[in-house]
Write a structure and sequence with these properties.
Layout: E1 4-5, H1 7-20, E2 26-33, E3 39-46, E4 54-58, E5 61-65, H2 67-72, E6 77-82, E7 87-92
Parallel strand pairs: 1-6, 2-5
Antiparallel strand pairs: 2-3, 4-5, 6-7
Length: 103
């Protein structure tokens, strides 16, 4: 896969899997166009991939990725951010237009 997961994001995902998953669990990352970064995501810890998901291990994290997500994540950096207003994964897509506040 041609995307990057920062160490902070990988740690967050590993912690989610440890808290909510059993042996063999992974992190399902389903992205679609939208949001400030150009991508909107639905995330969930799953015991097994959904039909059609690719199982990708990157930076020690097992990801379940639907086909459309694999295409949309090309060149994207996935990070973890904690701000006074939100906490969670953030996506930096160099292909997205800069239409939202400060980057």
């Amino acid at each position: 896969m041609n995307f990057e997961i920062t160490p902070k994001a990988a740690k967050f995902i590993r912690m989610m899997i440890m808290a909510d998953g059993g042996p063999g669990a992974g992190f399902r990352l389903s992205v679609s166009p939208g949001g400030c970064s150009g991508l909107s995501a639905e995330i969930a810890v799953k015991s097994e991939p959904d039909q059609g998901d690719a199982v990708v291990t990157q930076d020690g994290v097992k990801l379940f990725l639907p086909a459309e997500s694999r295409l949309l994540l090309q060149g994207v950096t996935i990070d973890f951010a904690e701000t006074p207003t939100s906490t969670g994964l953030v996506f930096f897509d160099p292909k997205a237009p800069a239409t939202c506040g400060s980057h």
